[in-house]
From TrEMBL:
<keyword id="KW-0963">Cytoplasm</keyword>
<dbReference type="InterPro" id="IPR011012">
    <property type="entry name" value="Longin-like_dom_sf"/>
</dbReference>
<dbReference type="GO" id="GO:0030126">
    <property type="term" value="C:COPI vesicle coat"/>
</dbReference>
<keyword id="KW-0813">Transport</keyword>
<dbReference type="GO" id="GO:0006886">
    <property type="term" value="P:intracellular protein transport"/>
</dbReference>
<dbReference type="GO" id="GO:0006890">
    <property type="term" value="P:retrograde vesicle-mediated transport, Golgi to endoplasmic reticulum"/>
</dbReference>
<keyword id="KW-0472">Membrane</keyword>
<keyword id="KW-0931">ER-Golgi transport</keyword>
<feature type="domain" description="AP complex mu/sigma subunit">
    <location>
        <begin position="45"/>
        <end position="182"/>
    </location>
</feature>
<feature type="compositionally biased region" description="Basic and acidic residues">
    <location>
        <begin position="1"/>
        <end position="12"/>
    </location>
</feature>
<keyword id="KW-0968">Cytoplasmic vesicle</keyword>
<comment type="subunit">
    <text>Oligomeric complex that consists of at least the alpha, beta, beta', gamma, delta, epsilon and zeta subunits.</text>
</comment>
<keyword id="KW-0653">Protein transport</keyword>
<comment type="function">
    <text>The coatomer is a cytosolic protein complex that binds to dilysine motifs and reversibly associates with Golgi non-clathrin-coated vesicles, which further mediate biosynthetic protein transport from the ER, via the Golgi up to the trans Golgi network. Coatomer complex is required for budding from Golgi membranes, and is essential for the retrograde Golgi-to-ER transport of dilysine-tagged proteins. The zeta subunit may be involved in regulating the coat assembly and, hence, the rate of biosynthetic protein transport due to its association-dissociation properties with the coatomer complex.</text>
</comment>
<dbReference type="InterPro" id="IPR022775">
    <property type="entry name" value="AP_mu_sigma_su"/>
</dbReference>
<feature type="region of interest" description="Disordered">
    <location>
        <begin position="1"/>
        <end position="32"/>
    </location>
</feature>
<feature type="compositionally biased region" description="Low complexity">
    <location>
        <begin position="13"/>
        <end position="32"/>
    </location>
</feature>
Length: 210
């Protein structure tokens, strides 16, 4: 499994140096440049991942911190991002103190959001992994119709790549293998339940015939 390099630090809101909710951030140490604390590398690199259609409507979204705590704030943010990126050829945008990498495919726009100081290449590796994994799961049809028909698989793909804002995997082959394994397990479980129910029905039927 390939993982982008990152240095761990406590999740925002954890640790002795964390500021109280709604309170001021801890001041820098004597002689320490202002803003240095905010630039410490973190495992919690991903703020959000979402997919919009070519009208800017949400199809899939996951937010991993409380930057946008309400649905209304999330939708407003997505609209702003779409308006800024839907008519450009760039792959990177900066909005509201965040770095956003994105990719379009037919009638879809895929976005990965990180803090302004996050490594753009790391964010791009997540975006590339997401697209390539979906490309396999959707059988090279990364478009709205096929995404809507395979939404469960799309969420499985995303969950294998990012968990709680932490990048778990950036190799699409590994992601696809894990998704297939989970799907097989689910299918086996459903099959086993069906077998149990059928066996119970047969037992009841024979008991009534006796």
């Amino acid at each position: 499994m390939q993982r982008p390099e990152a240095w761990p630090r406590p999740h925002p809101g954890e640790g002795a140096a964390a500021a109280p909710a709604g309170g001021p951030a801890p001041s820098a140490r004597a002689g320490e440049p202002a803003g240095l604390r905010l630039q410490e590398p973190s495992l919690y690199t991903i703020k959000a991942v979402f997919i919009l259609d070519n009208d800017g409507h949400r199809l899939l979204a996951k937010y991993y911190d409380d930057t946008f705590p309400s649905m209304k704030e999330q939708m407003a943010f997505e609209k702003n991002v779409f308006n800024k990126t839907s008519r450009t050829d760039s792959e990177i945008a900066f909005l509201g103190g965040m770095t956003i990498v994105y990719k379009s495919s037919i009638d879809l726009f895929l976005y990965v959001v990180g803090s302004s100081y996050e490594n753009e290449l790391m964010l791009m590796s997540v975006l590339t992994c997401l697209f390539e994994s979906l490309n396999h799961v959707l059988r090279k049809n990364v478009e709205k119709r096929w995404l809507l028909e395979n939404m469960d698989g799309a969420f499985l793909v995303l969950d294998e790549i990012v968990d709680g804002g932490v990048i778990l995997e950036s190799d699409p082959q590994q992601v696809v293998q894990k998704v297939n394994f989970r799907a097989d397990d689910s299918g086996l479980a459903e099959h086993s339940v069906a077998q149990v129910l059928q066996s119970a029905k047969e037992q009841i039927k024979w008991s009534l015939l006796k």
